[in-house]
């Protein structure tokens, strides 16, 4: 990093387009919390999921057609996605027979666990034998460039947060969907592994080498038509002691025209970091705008996304109305949708005066 | 990153202590600019360099004893360090005979080029045959933790900058040396590959995966005696479109009690980024203090380090006096040393009132 001029010439990385549609594998999962990836795919990429496939021990279903790998292949599936996590991130032996069957029946395997699929010798050998691919969405593309700082064409929105794990991905997905419903040309851009599975492309920014993180963010939302919106999934928080660097690289590389601040009302301490206070919404807006101006001087905050899953509908509505008044900005819970979400979308795409 | 609780349990990484002392290899270098690493080692780790070793074509010397690998080994050397760079970062074929000789004569090889030593089959085979190590200082230690945000004991100083490549490493080295000369218990902590070679330990922060960058910075300056100072080599700049994320992770993980802002008077645009203005010193102080308070609320700016290598002694002195008055902070050029440097050291270690 000490001498940018000495950086070897960058090569444009290959796109990470995933084989689709998917068969969603649920393993032997007994609690829905461990099937978040599968539920996310069902909710946000339903048209690209031909069915689900589970071991007899599984206690969780998605409501999709139950298909064997062979049936899924016949229905057009091109890959089996491991849609469940387990403690430690390993692939248990009980999963091997169904995964091997999927390879034999013509499906690629897609995983995002701590253990890479290619680290399992039986899977590696079977994939080679059947001419199938093992794709780990934790692996970023090779040959990412360092950031150039060059302003790109098209419009960009970035979801930012007061903490991790409070709805930045779902907010971006919801806003992209609501934009398209409003007739706006918009794409969701995934910066994390579940998002990559949903979008079928993107990259896991947290796995990129630090020097290339802003460059990866630039690569994620390339030049586009002047009226096109990229809605970019945020990561971490500028006020997080472990992940602020990732958040800043994503902010700088995204060059957002608009940010939406994601927040969970009532969360007082950073998740997993007792004693570390969640910053205020105002502080989060101010910090993101101040730092974001470096690569887009026209950056503005379009509004706020609340995760109100722990509140009743009435409580949520009252709180969002009060906070909207206090902050002078639209506030919506994208999962609840409705007029509040449409107002937030309008605030995102309006041309600032 | 979306769920910190799911992060696998961290294992403390092995220390990256390098085998020392060194024999410095100059290859066939004809211009001093390509031997910066060797000069840095000579200037800052002279007592750990037994000699230099070059091909007959070389036109650059360090003024150290010229030794063969065998002679260096007899003089106590444990490793040959590749102290030169060449365009493209490859290891030319003409270097292979001397490098193979060094392995045969009992030296480990240490490199930091773009091409990893272990990627060269002849070196890999010879190292295995002779039981020697090939060490790449571009490789960070394995199993780095994510940052905890926990405040560590001991005192820390971080050099920060208005841009890349303007003296953050030399400032940290100079301050650590001047502190020790003033009787203060101080260590230089290296965050880049040349610094790692000089210190004989540390890590190349720019090569760490983004999610672990702040954790790597925490690991770099562990708990210490309350009166001990770690003087940490800074990286990049918070106002750099490509590297600000690395700088922020280092700032958060370092938890500095004091920062020293490094600046090159007269530099108007970021190196290699035409059109991107160098931020003011005041903006750089303010941004670092604001963001640094997250992990150390007591952070303060102790003073400024100027790189005045392009000015005369008189010009430099006048400029530093004027800027010191304007900013109300000590300003020194560590390479020029003198009373200004001692005043900067006093400002670094003074207990704020």
Automatic annotation (TrEMBL), chains A, B:
InterPro entries: DgcN-like, DgcN-like_C, DgcN-like_N, P-loop_NTPase. Residues 62-140 form the D-glutamate N-acetyltransferase-like N-terminal domain. SUPFAM superfamilies: P-loop containing nucleoside triphosphate hydrolases. Residues 147-339 form the D-glutamate N-acetyltransferase-like C-terminal domain. It comes from the Bacteria. This is DUF1611 domain-containing protein. It comes from Lysobacter yananisis.
